[in-house]
Predict the 3D structure of the following.
Amino acid sequence: MAERPAPVTLFEGRRLRATWFPGRSDRTIVTFDWRQEGREGFAPLWHATSFARQGFGQVTIRTAANDWFLNDETEALEGALSRWSPHGGRVQMLGFSMGAYGALRLARALGARQVVAVSPQSGLEVAWDRRYPAEAASWPVALGHLGARAVPGLRGLLVFDPFVPEDRCHAARILGWFPALRPVRLGFGGHPAIRVLRGAGGMRLLQEQAGARSARAEPILAAHRAARRSSRGWWLRLARQAGERRPALAARARERASTLAPHRGDEGPEG
């Protein structure tokens, strides 16, 4: 196997870092940190094996805190990314939750052509999302406003669970600013919306679409439909949604869930 290229530092600060692994392909994939409970500083530098095998370049953007990449180094990072060029190649992005927000927020600076954004937030200043109270309390409205940095021609997929009300509202807001994105609704997928897919090769599938020249929703939708039958988390979320309005359906869903083993990452707190 060919040796992996040496990483190139694009930006290194106290709070934000961007690192480039050059590749053989004309495509560079940009990945982003996601929110992690108990985060203490930067996560280890990560180079995705699947992207490396295909010869893609990869830029990984990391943050030392769960700050949605918004701090006193954000504008300096944007400047560094704007000056960087993958030698005329095509920039595509992949992000989850906080990382998906980061992809949309930095798309213009990166000159990105495509994104696969899974359950992104449109901002935390909104009254209808109270999942992140500590971060929302210090949200920098002007610096974090996606609409001011929208890329209306940015293509790709906006993946979300329409039964997570906050994510549904965020998706509607984002599509107003990024109308070329295709909404991909994974019902009872949770947050992020690929929780059902995590035990069914979901990360590989998302990486495939992120690396494709034209990301397609159909493989993701088909995999979600196939995986939900054996997903305990999917049936439990269906039962919660059915609730008292459809008690017979809720009971059947709970009964089905009781016959299934939990999948790692598909249950428990969502964030």
Strands lie at 8-12, 16-21, 27-32, 57-63, 90-96, 114-118, 155-160, 181-185. The chain has two domains: 8-217, 229-271. DSSP finds ten helices and eight strands in the chain. The first strand starts at residue 8 and ends at 12.
